[in-house]
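Supplementary Methods S3. Input chains for the assembly prediction are listed below.
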Amino acid sequence: MPVRREISQRDEIPPGTLYMLILKTLSRSGELHGYEIANSIQQMSGDVLQVEEGSLYPALQRMLLKGWVRAEWGVTPENRRARYYRLTTLGRKELELEVSQFQRVFEAIQQVLRPA
Amino acid sequence: MNWLSELGRRLQMLLRRDEFDSDLEEEMKLHIQMRVDQQIKEGVSEKAAQAAARRQFGNVLSLREQSQDAWGWRWLEQLVQDVRYGIRTIFRAPGFATITVLTLALGIGGTTAIFSAVYPILFQPLPYPNSDRITMIWEIGREGKRDEGTFGMYRELAERNQSYDSIAEIKPWQPTMTGVDQPERLDGQRVSATYFKVLGIAPALGRDFQQSEDQLNGASVAILSDSLWRRRFGADPDVVGRKARLDDKSFTIIGVMPNRFENVLDPTAELWTTLQYDMSQGRAWGHHLRAVGRLRHDVTMSQAIAELNEIGQAVLEEQHPETYRQEVKFLAISLHDDVIRGVKPALMAIMAAVLLVLVIACVNVTNLLLARGVHRRGEFALRAALGAGRGRLLRQLLTESLLLAAFGGLVGIIIADFGVHALVSLSPPGLPRVNAIAINYAVFVFGIAITTLIGVAFGLIPALHASRRDPNGDLQYGSPRSAGGHRRTRNSLVIVEVALALVLLVSSGLLLRSLQRLFAVDTGFDSSRLLTMLVQTSTIRFSDKDAINRFFEQSLEAVKRVPGVSAAAFTSQLPMSGDSDLYGVQFDPVPLDDPGEIRGTFRYAISPDYLELMRIPLKSGRYLEEHDGSDAPLVAVISESLVKRRLKGLDPLGQRLRIGTGPLYTVVGVVGDVRQVSLALSEPDAVYTTASQWRSTDNSMSLVVRARNEAMPSVSDLRRAIWSVDKDQPVLRVRTMDDLLAASAEERRFALIVFEAFAAAALVLAAAGLYGVLSGSVAERTREFGVRLALGASRESILSLVVRQGLILTGLGIAIGLAGAVASSQALVSMLYGITSLDPVTYFGVVLVLTVVSILACAVPAWRAVNVDPAITLRAE
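Predicted structure tokens for the full assembly:
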């Protein structure tokens, strides 16, 4: 979408990887609320990956349903009420699964793209 | 159990939806706020920061919906919405909804009730193991009639045949049980020892009969039914071995049948004993035993019949029994077919009738929905224009149709339940397997499915219209003025309805006329103010004939003294009571051209004043009198039919005749013919003697009392009068003669009641359909009528316009229906009496009724059309 391009030169995350990114972020940082997750993904990717921020929330709901994350209300350092998400054991397993899957696919694609 | 905990979370979310929504909202708000704060910190103006944050976040509303979707409850929310809306729509048109629901309920409920009653009787296998192997074995008598078998023949068949695992013979047995506080006559059966083996059911307590118990002078043993065991023996677990006094003989109880045992060969039988026949007895070659057998698993019915015929022929040649003619043929028919033979035509007709009602109901619902669709076209065009998708519209209509079907089903199951109970309580006594009748849910579901399907198919038409066409047109013509192209469909549906209703009306009309004819039949006696009861003598004190006759004479004297009794008499058999005591009568000398006995002659042993009391008219000679006692010359009175058939041109008085093999009687009188077996059966040959001149004794006699006035004498007074002579004699079967007459027509009456109910339903539905179509068309043409009136048309001309429209539909329906009725009434022939299936009175009457009802159905819409105020209608649009 051209509007967003005006703000910064960022790429949308590949479809299907949002869960993996959220899981990875949480596994690295422990407990985060939605805004922190969005920022964290952006920063860790060196500002290359851009999450449509709102879409985090349906994704988080689906992950809550699957039991990969758990949510609890807490307070931010600025004293605001925020919902913090944390990885569950199930979520950790899911992360491993998705990472290995992603790597397999990624390597396969690289092989295809490798110059002859 | 991942999915289980997932389901748990899902449910939790459903239960705490409000909390979920507010959490999500707060969370998103915080996110946007933090983004705004960050941008402001980076130096962006607050307004720009707000806009950028929102842009970056996306559509909050849609994201919230997506989040909710994640939990998978959206369908439920929409369903609730649709149902709520549907219920509101239904209540907005309560008339439409009521008629639709009632129509559906009638169709579903009626069909379920009838099929529930008919299915176990006609289609369910009998409750015996491998019941399809059980057959009745009949001898084929004169004119192809089924004849009961003889013991002599049975014995040979049982011994020589290779086709059956076992064969048993049966005859009714009505012993009186004494030695308990009240004597009681029980219904039972005398059977071969193999009877329960043929059926494949063993006693639940004790043991089955043994061959040694089925021999002349063998041990007297009895097996009880579960009901008798509970009723008279207090469900005593040690009943086996106990004694019971039956007909003053001691019987040892050897077994009790299981609770679930259904004895289809005599549903009222409560106990069984062995036949104990022997070839030395005179009755060994008498045709009075029914035979039932269990076919071997590898033998077909026709193989069995061939073998039976072969054996039968050989037996005749070897033994030359007098009761057989030159040849004997057998008929084997499955027990199930045999049991339902009598009721099958009536039940099939009833089933066809209820299917017609179901079709009419479906037609009516279709009509209603089409009419309603026209009215709602505007509404759907509007919703489509506002952006409702086709799927959404379809789903909403579907919900509405299903709601109507659900209501219809609900009321339908109530009707079905009521109907099944009504059917069972109305059912004629001859209806087999009544105990097995219960609501059949498969049929119920089928009924709901078919009506729902129709509701769905026709209910969706307006939605398809709305989504297919340019909504603009419908919006503009969304008023009832847009008549709609369905008028022709709806007209033809009404024609169909009228035609089907006519078929049902003709059928029930024919049955009604038959019943009228039947009750108008001259029974040959005067049934008014007659009270009847069966009096039995059972105890050993009455072993000799004189004692029994004295008991009856004294009882008669006592009964005559009871207040309200104007006359009383005894007879050995009573018309319409089920008694049937037939003898062969031979005149001596045999008259020229005497065709001989055909079915036998009813033999009555009576107290002398019986004929007068019954008001059976004297044709010539004299009635029997007091002085025709045991010492006087033997005299008899015979029926007119016997004179006409057997004594052509001879003076009957003074003729001498033999009853069976007994002595000669002199005919002293001729009386009118009487219907003995039932109103419909005219088999009037009869011979009357006084009880004291009859060679043996009848242990039970029917007491007939003519009351002085309409108030019948008290039964307990009569009983007490008889018991004042001897208190041990049971008094049974107390009925007025009018009740007996009504009972004799029970089966026809049953069919008639069912048909009348269906015909009434059909008539109402057809009238409703006609009314619906006409009032719809009047509503659509209100404007036209207004214009006509404004231009000077008379009210009469408009009235006749509407009525004519209705009558044309009715007329077409009647024409088609008449053809259908002529064809379908053929199925009723076996239930008709005294009229043909083309009875003109019935057809004329039905057409008249249908026309009158249609005129009434036209009248209301026509009246409405006439009262249109042109000023208002023209301005209205």
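Chain B is about 50% helix and 15% strand. Residues 477-483 of chain B have pLDDT under 50 and may be disordered.
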